[in-house]
Structures are given as structure tokens and as C-alpha cells.
Amino acid sequence: MIRVAVATAPLRADLTGGFTDCEPFLRSRPARMVSAALDHRVAVRATRSQGGYSIRMVDSRGPVVDAPRFEPGRGRTGLERLLGKLLLLLGIPAHLDATIPLPMGSGTGSSGTVMTAATAALLALDDMGISLSSVPHVAAAVERLCGHHGGLQDQFAATFGGFTSYSFHDHGVDVHRLGHAGSVLRDAVLAVPPPADRRVGSDRLVQLVADRYRAGEADTVGALAGLVALGDQISDLLATAQPARSDLAALLLAVLDRQRRLHPVIRAGIEETPVWTLVREGAVVGKPLGGAGRGSAWLLLMSTDAARQRLASAGWVVHRVRISDVGVRTESEPRRETTAVGGTGLLNSAEDASVPGAT
Fold first, then answer.
1. Which of the chain's termini has less CB crowding within 10 Å, N or C?
2. What one-character-per-residue DSSP string does 265-314 give?
3. Partners of 175 in the beta sheet?
4. For residue 68, is pLDDT > 70?
């Protein structure tokens, strides 16, 4: 019997603006997104129990959840409730310990990545014969059951890793590797705001955008259509033999413009950050992750030393972007197994993959 299973999965930075992979927008048209899996990996350790549950989560700022006698369905935080629902649905009594290397809520897909890693760890713990390519669907299904309105981009980035384009459509998700294009991020940095800053939650932002889309608000409808077109252009550019960083920079500025048009809350959140001042000064090309607000991390494609120093003086932490070529990886004890998606494992020899059933 497997007693302990550990799964790790990468956080991500998206380049194409988000929101286009969530309902109801996908019902009207397909969308492509590009994600860079970061070399900042979430780790979830699942230990078989005799019937009780516990959940403990720690991020780079300290404890997030510490529930030694957790009762599924009574979690105090959104992610705590999601993990409880996952434990109940899979029917596996276990203790979960999660470590997140960046701050929760900064827009790097931490919730989706924790859910992906926890799903992989629990499936390995119970020795279920489910392929890892099914893991993002299981993780996302639990989120939908709990009323979370996000899409699948975080779960897929965590599962497959690498620098990757995802095409979301009615019949599933196509996964296309862009490893050769990673050079466009050679000078990129991830700027994370100080602890006092907070952002509007991504689930709330998706609801706000979806409501305006359903109401036919011209700015939101046009901005979403623009993000889809830009997602196509960015995917096509990065699929070329030698994509130019200047071309990508121009497209990312256009993404930022469309994001600002999605909703007044998003516009205000973007424009109140010190990074927005740098963008207006032309010192940096970048985009916010996770939507908006002073708690959102930013992906800076090109920035000067002076710009990074200004952010540091305001309490921001700047990380060099390194891509994680390996997606979710699981190990189990006492029978030790290692399975990975990404650089090795299910996609070892395939550049592209088609994953059915995303919607």
C-alpha cells in the first residue's frame, strides 16, 4: 500500500491576458493562450490517514492554512474548501501539506497549481489508473463544482509545463510546445508586490467580466475579441523559427490595452500600481498577471536596471524568469514511482498533444 505521495507542479505566467478560456465566452469562439511555466514549483505531500483529514499550506510569506482537524465542507478559505471537496470526491482520507514558493493571490495560478498537484498526489496515493493528462480536468471540475468561475489555463500549465500554447475549443484543448521560442524571455522578470498589497480575486474578476459580456457591454465584448485575436498573433509569432522580442513587446502592450478595457475594476487596478507608471514612461514592457490590483504580479519582458530598482525600493521582489520544462511530477512511497508530464514522461517525444474534453 502506498503511504505517502508527493506531487510538484510549476506556477505560471500567462502572456495573452486570460479570461478567454472561461464560460460563457468559449461557447461563442475558440481561444488560444500562451503560458510560461515558471521554475517556482508548488509541492503537495499527501499522507494516508486512518480516516481524518488535515490541510496545511505555506507560501513565501508564511502559513496560509493550518487546519490539523479539517472537516471537508467547512474550510475558511476558498482554496481550503476546494481541497476539502477534492478529498471528499476522491474518497481518500489523507493529510495534505502544500508549499507555495510565491505569494498566494499574486496571479501566478497558485490555486489552480495547488489543486493540480493535490489531485496528482491523491491519485498516486490511491494508485488510481488515471493518466496525468486527465489531472487538469479533475482539478478544474472540482473548482467548477465549488462555484469557481475560472478556466483551465492554470491547471494545464501546471500539468504540462514548458513554454506552451493552448488552444481551447468545443472539442477539448490542443497543446503546442514553444520551447524554441523561450529566448524571448531571456531578460524577462517577474515582479511581485509587497505583502501589504492585495488584488481583486480572479474568480470575482471572471464573474464581473462574464456579467458584462452577457449584458452585451461593447467595451467588454470588444476587449475579449481583441484578446482572442492577440492570442492568435502571439501564438503564431512564437511558433516561428526566430520570433522577435520587439514584435512580442508590441503585442503585449496591446494585450495590456485590451485588459484595461474589460472592466473599470481592472482598469483601476492596473493604473494604481507603480508598474503602470513605468509602462507610461516607456521604461518597461509588461502585463499584469491574475487580473488587476496592487497585489498582482507583473511579467516584465524588458526592463531597465533603474526600473527594477524603483520597484525594489517600493518593496517589490523581482525574480528572473526561468521556464520549468517539466510539468506535474509525482513520487510515491514505499513503492517509489516517478511520472512526469512535460520534458519527460507522457510528452517525452511529442512536440504537440491534443487533450479532449476541456469544456
1. N
2. HHHHHHHTSHHHHHHHHTSEEEEESSSSBTT--EEEEEE-HHHHHHHHHT
3. 166, 353
4. yes
Check whether residue 201 and residue 337 sit in a common domain.
no
Residue 355: inside a domain: no
Residue 66 backbone dihedrals phi, psi, to 5 degrees: -140, 90
pTM, entire model: 0.87
Q: Which residue type, as a one-letter code, is found at position 312?
A: A
Note the pLDDT tens digit of each residue in 169-178.
Answer: 777 788 899 9
Q: Give pLDDT tens digits for 6-47.
A: 999 999 998 886 676 666 676 667 788 899 999 999 999 999
Grid coordinates representing 98 are 502544500
The distance from CA 347 to its chain's CA centroid, rounded to whole angstroms, is 20
Query: Is residue 354, in this structure, part of any structural domain at all?
Result: no
- Residue where the block lists cell 520551447: 179
The Cα-based distances of 150 to 16, 118, 141, 193, 258 in angstroms read 15, 18, 11, 23, 19
CA 308 from chain center: how many Å? 24
- Cell match 493552448: residue? 166
Regarding whether 204 and 75 lie in a shared domain, the answer is no
Are residues 301 and 331 located together in one domain of the fold?
no
More confident residue, 155 or 71: 155
Q: Give the range of the structural domain holding residue 161, as residue numbers without chain letter.
A: 4-179+323-349
Say if residue 167 is in the same domain as residue 193.
no
Nearby residues of 96 by Cβ (< 8 Å), 6 or more positions away: 44, 45, 46, 53, 54, 55, 56, 83, 87, 118, 121
Between helix 218-238 and helix 202-214 the angle, nearest 10°, is 120
Which H or E run contains 103?
A: none
